[in-house]
Amino acid sequence: MADRASASILIGGPLRRALLDDLCEAARQDGGFAGWDEDPLDGQAMRDGAPLEICAYELRGGVFDALEAFCETHGLAYVRRSGSCAGAFGPERVVHVGDGAPETFETNEGDAVTIGVADVRRLGSLAAIEAFFARAAFVVPPLTLVDGAAA
User: Fold this and answer.
1) Does the pLDDT value for residue 76 go beyond 80?
2) Counting beta carbons within 10 angstroms of the beta carbon of residue 21, is it exposed (0 to 12), middle (13 to 18) or buried (19 or more)?
3) CA–CA separation, 137 and 21 (whole Å)
């Protein structure tokens, strides 16, 4: 059995209304629910003016494989927070701003981004360190349903 951890993901940005069921299906494939109380995930889980939060227990590697791929394919922003699996991997935050590759940030169990001396040396300046923390603090926009082919 693969190493597993609980995780949550906030998803936002414009999504074609016709793809909402596909988004929910991708989340269900990963064992996702609308909250830690395992509420069913459907269009009713969306809240006006807010990102969509999906939670799951015992994810392989602490990753929403199908859901993250869906978001990246359709240009949705997300922030995933994953717990650790003792002896296998630590907690992390993954940020996808809606385009490009996601960026991974090591965190502590309280979700505070952490860096070590090697990171400080790699980043090289206070401005680069501050930019690193700013990228990690990305705020997911609301998930909005749009009509039409664009989005």
Assistant:
1) yes
2) exposed
3) 29
